[in-house]
Specification:
The structure holds two protein chains of two kinds.
Chain A (H helix, E strand, L loop, with lengths): L3 E4 L2 E4 L5 E7 L6 E7 L5 E8 L5 E2 L8 E7 L2 E6 L8 E8 L10 E2 L3 E5 L1
Parallel strand pairs in A: 2-11
Antiparallel strand pairs in A: 1-3, 3-8, 4-5, 4-9, 5-6, 7-8, 9-10, 9-11
Chain B lengths: L1 E6 L2 E5 L4 E9 L4 E7 L5 E7 L5 E3 L5 E5 L4 E6 L8 E8 L7 E2 L3 E6 L1
Parallel strand pairs in B: 2-11
Antiparallel strand pairs in B: 1-3, 3-8, 4-5, 4-9, 6-7, 7-8, 9-10, 9-11
The chains are: A mainly beta, B mainly beta.
Chain lengths: 118, 113
């Protein structure tokens, strides 16, 4: 149980392109979804937290107009990297949690999306 | 505010030897603690979690961790390493602010035959 599917797994595109990444909870309702960014050989940095039906909460330093997050249903959240540039190249990982607000509820992670901007 | 420190960015062990990964945390509220494993180009898989019940927590793949409040530690151990244990391991803490996680820097485990 608790499977999170992230798509696509890898994207290579030209500078200036907008890229959408999907995160789906397959067998549970995800009240809360999280988006992380991971640079090579580094830890995960939280970008934003999204709750179904409301606006995402962005971490300090993350441009909300650059990284658009939509959480329209209890099983789907999307991250759109708008007008991507080479510095946006990274490994993006989503996670989902049921029973939002419960600190002891584990997050279940997708397999990540490797974004490469040429 | 919360923080996690993982001592040692790399650990090398021989197959069959003890695996010990260190994690110390700082939290202004009673913490919930997690260990995750990440294989190359994949997301994170939950190994185990501490949620204020038993202080010794058993997880998957033979791993366990012990919560020690006096030492603010949550070290991860496995008695006998397998080659398949080679991966990156992350300790994480969450607290009263919903289930937002703060991760440690990660420890990469290399298992030698």
């Amino acid at each position: 149980g608790a499977v999170v599917s992230q798509h696509p797994s890898r994207v290579i595109c030209k500078s200036g392109t907008s890229v959408k990444i999907e995160c789906r909870s397959l067998d549970f309702q995800a009240t809360t979804m999280f988006w992380y960014r991971q640079f090579p050989k580094q830890s995960l940095m939280l970008m934003a937290t999204s709750n179904e039906g409301s606006k995402a909460t962005y971490e300090q330093g993350v441009e909300k107009d650059k990284f658009l997050i939509n959480h329209a249903s209890l099983t789907l959240s999307t991250l759109t990297v708008t007008s991507a540039h080479p510095e946006d190249s990274s490994f993006y990982i989503c996670s989902a949690s049921s029973e939002g607000g419960g600190s002891n509820q584990p997050q279940h992670f997708g397999d990540g999306t490797r974004l490469s901007i040429l | 505010a919360q923080s996690v420190t993982q001592l040692g960015s790399h650990v090398s062990v021989s197959e069959g030897a003890l695996v010990l990964l260190r994690c110390n945390y700082s939290s202004s509220v009673p913490p919930y603690l997690f260990w995750y494993v990440q294989y190359p180009n994949q997301g994170l898989q939950l190994l185990l979690k501490y949620t204020s019940a038993a202080t010794l927590v058993k997880g998957i793949n033979g791993f366990e961790a012990e919560f020690k409040k006096s030492e603010t530690s949550f070290h991860l151990t496995k008695p006998s390493a397998h080659m398949s244990d080679a991966a990156e391991y992350f300790c994480a803490v969450s607290g009263a602010a919903g289930n937002k996680l703060t991760f440690g820097g990660g420890t990469r485990v290399l298992v030698k035959p």
